[in-house]
Design goal:
about 270 residues, single chain, 13 helices, Rossmann fold, seven-stranded mixed sheet
Length: about 270
């Protein structure tokens, strides 16, 4: 460790820093990332939850959409890998467990599995799909929206450019998964699902907290590898690269989101 730390001297990397995955701060997410749940209405409509249904919300975050699904009378269980998010969701009075979406342990318990803006944080989709299928009752449905092919392409390219100069491959470290419709359809079908609908949706999305707030919330796992001062410089450089493309003359930022929305049924 001493030799490694010495090798990092002057690089701007935190001594001993290793990537441990995206780290979520529930309070910061509520402040800068609330738009994610606010824009989840269409996928909830696709789910069409009914009173009495047993539904698993996979990657439920702080429970904002879980709460809406439960409000119709569905019996909802949330699951999330972030302890902070689990605690925030439980504070809403929701039933939530802490766990990985790539290692689901449920067995034939749910009429539907729902997920919004979470599957792209799970880089082993075959494991996710197998766990979802196992969690569903026969004929149960899997309804989700996630980042799709081309999602935040400009943001990712800018951050990659800045961090490669500092010795960090941001794309590899972030390990985000943004599939095309054809790719994810094949994964679902190979995993024992019949796909009812699959749509790639370009959705330019206003960022109320600006690009700096977005980067510090949605790429903080990568940025945490940097010393505090170097992190601030990296964010500023990335923001500068993106300003001509994603910020208008009044200072309003818009992210280049692309979403993949689908409904599939367990065979």
């Amino acid at each position: 460790m001493m030799a490694m730390d010495e090798a990092r001297a002057g690089t701007g990397l935190r001594p001993g820093a290793t990537f441990a995955g995206q780290a979520w701060d529930a309070a910061a997410y509520a402040k800068t990332g609330r738009f994610v749940a606010d824009l989840g209405g269409p996928v909830v409509e696709l789910l069409a939850p009914r009173a009495g249904e047993a539904i698993l919300d996979l990657g439920c975050g702080d429970g904002a959409l879980t709460e809406k699904i439960a409000a119709v009378g569905a019996v909802v269980t949330g699951i999330d890998a972030s302890r902070g998010m689990v605690e925030a969701a439980r504070a809403r009075g929701l039933t939530v467990v802490e766990g990985s979406g790539e290692a689901l342990e449920f067995d034939g318990e749910f009429d539907a599995v729902f997920s919004n803006a979470a599957l792209h944080w799970m880089p082993r989709p075959e494991a996710v799909i197998a766990g979802v299928r196992r969690a569903l009752k026969p004929g149960g449905r899997f309804v989700a929206e996630m980042g799709g092919h081309g999602n935040i392409a400009a943001i990712r390219a800018a951050l990659q450019s800045v961090l490669l100069a500092k010795g960090i491959d941001a794309e590899r470290v972030a390990a985000s998964f943004y599939p095309s419709p054809g790719h994810y359809r094949r994964l679902l079908e190979a995993g024992g699902f019949k796909v009812r609908s699959m749509e790639l949706i370009p959705r330019p999305t206003p960022l109320p907290a600006g690009m700096e707030g977005w980067l510090n919330t949605f790429r903080n796992g990568v940025l945490d590898l940097l010393l505090e001062g170097e992190r601030a410089r990296a964010v500023a450089e990335t923001v500068g690269l993106l300003r001509p493309m994603l910020c208008d003359g009044d200072g309003n930022w818009t992210a280049d989101y692309v979403r993949l929305r689908f409904e599939a049924v367990r065979g």
